[in-house]
Amino acid sequence: MHLDMLMPQRLSGFKPDVCSFESLFTHSYVREDGSRPSVNPQTTQFHTNALLSWALLLTICTGSHIRVIAPKHLSKLPRLLENDNVNMRIAAGETIALLFELIRDVDPEFDYDGWEPLCEKLNALATDCNKHRAKTDKRKQRSVFRDVLKAVEEGDFQSETIRFGTERMVIDSWVRKRTYDAFREFVGSGMNYHLQANEFIRDVFELGPPMLIDSTALKAMKSSRLEREGKMFAAFKARTKARNKFRDKRVDVGEF
Predict the structure, then answer these.
(1) pTM reported for the whole predicted model
(2) Nearest Cα to 50, choosing from 8, 97, 92?
(3) Number of helices (H), then strands (E), in the chain
(4) Looking at the structure, do residues 25 and 130 belong to the same domain, yes or no?
(5) Position 1 confidence tier, pLDDT thresholds 50, 70, 90
(6) How far does the chain reach from its first CA to its final CA, in angstroms?
(7) Which domain of life is it from (predicted)?
């Protein structure tokens, strides 16, 4: 799914929309003197949402727009990597990876002056051992920034396969990931259903018209799901039984 193929007729109002979102999330930038803006958690979340919305607009931006936007913001976005909020850091990292993918798509010889300092910063976040941060935040952050670092250094993307019904879709680029994440955030747990039945979403991901599944195929799908669930339940039961035996042994040793 190339960015220049998506609804070019709707890009006439693109620049003002980009500027509107940009005017919001840039308030979270670390200032030139190194000081940090004083914002509350609600405002930071608002700025994070604005950044993600801005990134989504970039996925339908023309190559000429990307040539202007990427150099301008790749010199500023790394400041958001220093934000205290893990969601903002992750949103900034993924947006940086997206921008590198987009600019390299239209200009394979693109040269970024701050490449080495950026890679050092991304590597620090990918191996973060800050004791003051929650373990879950660090684990989530390290996983994301390992992928972001590969994107910046090698132009690589860790592909992911999404299965729904009898079909599957491969998320094989940052453009596709940002688009998929945006729809998933909007429809929630119903994403798989929409991938199967929603004509607009299927069109965006180039899945073709919804597939018609006959009763025999539907029955086979349900049977295979029941079999998987049965195996999972049996494995869970076996693990529980083994743990109980181990606990009984510990009790016996203690009593002895």
Answers:
(1) 0.75
(2) 92
(3) 10, 2
(4) yes
(5) very low
(6) 68
(7) Eukaryota
